[in-house]
Design brief:
Helix content: 10-25%
Mean pLDDT: 90
Shape: elongated
Distance between the termini: 38 Å
Largest sheet: 6 strands, mixed
Low-confidence stretches: none
Bound molecules: adenosine-5'-triphosphate
Number of strands: 20
Strand content: 25-35%
CATH superfamily of the largest domain: P-loop containing nucleotide triphosphate hydrolases
Length: 350
């Protein structure tokens, strides 16, 4: 049975913003699931509606098979960690962590023992008496996680849990979060607008736009085979090359290159206008003419550390190629970029 089943969920805010639009989603038991998408696409609204902090306009939310759409947050058995951690500033670390148990009216001894255990587990030993204001961002995040954990929720909801950390700490906290989630095997949904974070952490990702899911899949699926132009242009730290093309027999001609039509695109009619997508990572750069390569002149070379992003001007279209360290050309050079077999994607809706 799915841990979370969302059916036809719609949320229209007063004022008419349709933040969720008849959205369907199943999250499996024990899964680490990411909601990814641009600002305003409805990620936080979805999380808050699952938590019961927003009321659904229509549709249902079921947890472990039980319909909770009309239940208040306290009766849903979910733990939520907010972006700003929402710690109580006047309480000590241990009292913050123990708070959910106080609400559940557990004995003082039990509260203290469980909070101390959670604090140790999250590497907060020795900090129990401090106030949140006396902690680093990473430590505050761990207190928020510990507080959510002590209540042993069956579902964990995290809203941009790493966004307040600096780049180095973020990487560390990411690894920590992944290990924690696997150890506890608690179904976890987290919201992020950082695709590197989603790709690194999640078992599966839902890419959202305008209150709908545009693609649902593993990080590899979403990265390698974006289902549509929206996902193709959204995913990838160096954006995918998207070039206008035309089907000619069993080939596609785009930016002067003639590429074999992928098997799954055989049904496209000759003369059809399409968009040809290929990631900069999946192009091989060379300084000699090659059949089926994009030919152009190097306009920009950006060093990425370990590799370089080369921009070729191909018939007026910029084509980006990732080139290994030491092999980068100079601006003004002639260059050829050959797509690797099976790495060219075609889209109709462009
Ligand atoms: P971000 O990444 O910027 O946090 P998001 O994907 O989490 O964005 P939401 O916060 O869920 O997006 O917002 C979805 C849409 O609903 C946006 O257009 C937003 O302006 C609108 N919205 C959010 N909260 C409210 C509210 N309380 N009242 C009215 N409109 C709202």
């Amino acid at each position: 049975m799915a841990a979370i089943t969302i059916s036809e969920l719609t949320k229209v805010y007063p004022g008419g913003v349709r933040a969720l639009d008849a959205l369907d989603l199943d999250v499996a038991d024990g899964e680490f699931f990411a909601l990814l998408g641009p600002s305003g696409c409805g990620k936080t609204t979805l999380l808050r509606t699952v938590a019961g902090l927003e009321a659904a306009t229509s549709g249902t939310v079921a947890l472990g098979g039980a319909d909770v759409t009309r239940l208040p947050p306290g009766r849903r058995d979910v733990g939520m960690v907010f972006q700003d951690y929402a710690l109580f500033p006047h309480m000590s670390v241990l009292d913050n962590i123990a708070y959910p148990l106080k609400i559940k009216k557990r004995s003082k001894a039990d509260r203290h023992a469980r909070a101390a255990e959670a604090a140790d587990y999250l590497g907060l030993e020795g900090l129990g008496k401090r106030r949140p204001g006396e902690l680093s961002g990473g430590q505050q995040q761990r207190v928020a996680l510990a507080r959510a954990l002590v209540a042993e929720p069956r579902i964990f909801l995290l809203d941009e849990p790493l966004s307040n950390l600096d780049a180095r700490l973020r990487l560390e906290a990411r690894t920590f979060l992944k290990r924690l989630q696997k150890e506890l095997a608690v179904t976890t949904v987290f919201v992020t607008h950082d695709q590197a974070e989603a790709l690194a952490l999640a078992d599966r990702i839902a890419v959202m736009d305008k209150g709908r899911i545009r693609q649902l899949g593993t990080p590899t699926e979403v990265f390698r085979r974006p289902a549509n132009l929206f996902v193709a242009s959204f995913i990838g730290s160096t954006p995918m090359n998207l070039l206008p093309g035309r089907v000619e027999g069993d080939h596609v001609v785009a930016a002067g290159a003639s590429l074999p039509l992928p098997d799954e695109a055989r049904a496209l009619a000759a003369g059809e206008e399409i968009v040809c997508g290929v990631r900069p990572e999946y192009l091989d750069y060379g300084d000699r003419p090659v059949d089926g390569a994009f030919a152009g002149r190097v306009s920009v070379v950006e060093h990425l550390g370990g590799s370089a992003l080369v921009t070729l001007d191909v018939e007026g279209e910029p084509v980006h190629v990732v080139v290994g360290e030491g092999r980068e050309p100079a601006p003004g050079d002639e260059g050829w970029a050959l797509p690797r077999p099976g790495r060219v994607l075609l889209y109709r809706d462009g």
